[in-house]
Batch of 2 targets.
Target 1
Amino acid sequence: MMTHLSLDPLPNHAWRPSERHRTAEEPTLPAHRPSHLPGLERFNALPADEAERVLLACCGSCHWARRVAAHRPYPDLESLLAAADEAAYDLTPGDVAEALACESLTLLPDGAYSGAHTALSAAHAAYESRFGHVFVICLDDTPPAEYPDRVLAGIRSRLTNDPDEERSHTAEELRRLAKGRLTRSLPPTPSHDHGEQRSLLP
């Protein structure tokens, strides 16, 4: 079993354990916007360029961000996520390449044993050599202790794909990453229903 990772705020990244890169900032709403508004209501009220900036922190495709921002206002989180999904399904190869270029890369912690570094470095290098871009995987449903093994298994499994299959798989992982990041970027919205509070977020 490989050593547990120390993760930054967005835990699902393209994976390269041997080099240090920038990390994506958690998408946040501009501080000068009215802070009393709930998360989704604030997002709906943002100017287009600011909404797109929030969205680009979830998926680096400008086309995707513009399309999702243009369909505001959204009545609820479910509608927003459905629009994000629909836009992601229509990503062109160029859109996917643009989004991949924005994915941040995460290091193993300093205390990780050398075998973990070696195995993940070799797997990532083989993947990038075969497909010409970084490896991305959504880990939202994976316990943190299993991240290293899941990433290594994912790389090894997807190395058997042909380029068209892997392009489709990569686009699907970007869609899942965007959906999870978008959900986490919006704080819970209180709603009163028969005296009880309900959050738009799961």
Target 2
Amino acid sequence: MLTIHADSRGRALVVDGALIAAAGPLEELAAGRPRARVRQWPGILTPGLINLHGTELLEEAYHPDPREAEELGTAPLTGEALAALAMDDARWGAGARRGVQRMLAHGTVAAACEELRNRAVRDAVHRSGLRVVGRIGRPAGVPSLDPYASGLPVEFASPREPGSAARFAVFDVADEADLPAAGASSCVATVVEGRLVYRRR
């Protein structure tokens, strides 16, 4: 089934399976595909973000379960706090799944990582559809689920063109120029491999 994703400016993408089938004005795309499902979002469509601290956030941090919030808080645990936990494969996998979901909620469609050595983390990332892009060495800046809070220039995924992978995000801002001030927490939807993997309620 075709799905048309459109932003508040009337810019739209047609998604067919895992690929972008067409891009253009909503009226034009919808007129040629009367049976397509149309999802209209507030804000702007973008290619989605690349989080440059994938290794630090997924393999060197534990993302607590909400049921652990009273004991562990809600922020990713690293360093001594992580070392104090009894981490096994099940806990690493569950933490990585939550970390990926939190990345997706910030419009992230790809994470830059060194080789992921923890199998439980690697499996969780692979199943999510989050794209892993290689990197050499450790980037500067502060690891953050919001790439705009890392102190580094923000990188976007490849442009969305017909025939390319359907990976993009929608941020509730009026224009791209407003996104740095609003931050990635303004994300309202994230699509990975054609699937709506995050939607703000």
